[in-house]
Amino acid sequence: MKKDIHPKYEEMTIVCACGGQYPTMNTVPGLRVEICSNCHPFFTGKQKFIDSAGRVEKFKKKYGIAKAEEAVETAEMLEIAEAV
């Protein structure tokens, strides 16, 4: 290996927004994360509903509730048209 071309591999600490600290080794001196295994809903079993800028409503409008309601309305209109 060539000398003096590789980054220094040193101890560092990962800090989560919840306050969790995890010592590890890396070439970066420090790292901050928003979610770790102590506060992530998958690991804790607690459901946290985080909606960023109405993305859930946008999804429901595009694929979920709006499509189901539209299908019901279309079926009702077809029944009315057949009755006439």
Can you list the strand order of the major beta sheet? Answer: 2-1-3
- Main sheet: strands, sense, barrel: 3 strands, mixed
The stretches of 5 or more residues where confidence is low (pLDDT under 50) are none
Task: Using the CA coordinates, give the radius of gyration.
Answer: 26 Å
Number of strands: 3
Number of helices: 3
SSE string, helices as H and strands as E: EEEHHH
User: Strand portion, in percent?
Assistant: 15-25%
**Mean pLDDT across residues:** 78
Distance between the termini: 86 Å
Q: How many domains would you count in the coordinates?
A: 2
The CATH architecture assignment of the largest domain turns out to be Irregular
Which percent range fits the helix content? 25-40%
How would you classify the helix and strand content by structural class?
A: alpha+beta
CATH topology of the largest domain: Rhinovirus 14, subunit 4
CATH class of the largest domain: Few Secondary Structures
Q: Judging from the principal axes of the Cα atoms, what is the shape? A: elongated
